[in-house]
Structures are given as structure tokens and as C-alpha cells.
């Protein structure tokens, strides 16, 4: 068992606070928190994708998630959980200062 306190990044610091990384049975799990400032876009241009499956829980704020054509896919608001497949394109506009908790899983 590994215990960690949930600590969010300070708004003045870099937005990601990786709290735990652990490998077990060929799966790498990373857990952390994020702070996103109102008015920002993630990523700044285009779309991003990463090699792991992601589960994120929004604990404060709102993000407008975008489809590849720029249309709105939906809104991540306080109390929302989202699952993003590995290599799935993603981008969003941060409509309110937002805090979220994430868990990433990847086969190694």
C-alpha cells in the first residue's frame, strides 16, 4: 500500500503535480493533480495525445472539450469524471480556474 496526500499545484507554479508513479504487473500507474488557469487552452495550439489511458475527475472549474473540427465535444465540470483512451486526440478551453485529479495507466 502506498498513501499520498492530495496536493494541488500552486496557481503560480507549473500546472501538473505528479504525486505518485508505480509499476506493477507490467502496468505503470501515475497519479496527480492539475491546476488550469481560466482563459488558457490545452494544448495552446492543435491537439495532443498520449500513450496512456487517462481517468480524470474535475473537482473545481470547467473545461470546454473540443472535437477535431473545433466543435464542442462537451464540458468537464466540477463532479465530472472523464475517460480518455490512449492516443485519443484531446484539446480544451479552460472556462474557469480548474482543478482536477488524474490517473494514468500504461502497459510497459
What is the gyration radius calculated from CA atoms?
A: 14 Å
> Which CATH class?
Mainly Beta
Q: Which segments are poorly predicted (pLDDT under 50) over 5 or more consecutive residues?
A: none
Secondary structure tally, helices = 0
Shape: globular
The secondary-structure element order is: EEEEEEE
Can you tell me the CATH architecture?
Sandwich
Average of pLDDT: 94
Count of distinct structural domains: 1
CATH topology: Jelly Rolls
Compute the separation of the termini in Å: 21 Å
Tell me the β content.
Answer: over 45%
* SS elements, strand count: 7
Q: Helical percent range? A: under 10%
Structural class, by secondary structure, is: mainly beta
The major beta sheet can be summarized as: 7 strands, antiparallel
User: For the record, what is the CATH homologous superfamily label?
Assistant: Jelly Rolls
Protein name: Cupin
InterPro entries: RmlC-like_jellyroll (IPR014710), RmlC_Cupin_sf (IPR011051)
Organism: Flagellimonas aurea
Amino acid at each position: 500500500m502506498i498513501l499520498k496526500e492530495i496536493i494541488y499545484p500552486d496557481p503560480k507554479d507549473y500546472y501538473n503535480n505528479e504525486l505518485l508513479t508505480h509499476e506493477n504487473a507490467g502496468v505503470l500507474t501515475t497519479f496527480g493533480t492539475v491546476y488550469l488557469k481560466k482563459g488558457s487552452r490545452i494544448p495552446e495550439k492543435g491537439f495532443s495525445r498520449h500513450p496512456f489511458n487517462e481517468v480524470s475527475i474535475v473537482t473545481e472549474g470547467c473545461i470546454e472539450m473540443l472535437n477535431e473540427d473545433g466543435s464542442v465535444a462537451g464540458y468537464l465540470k466540477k463532479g465530472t469524471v472523464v475517460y480518455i483512451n490512449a492516443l485519443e486526440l484531446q484539446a480544451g478551453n479552460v472556462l474557469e480556474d480548474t482543478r482536477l485529479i488524474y490517473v494514468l495507466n500504461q502497459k510497459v
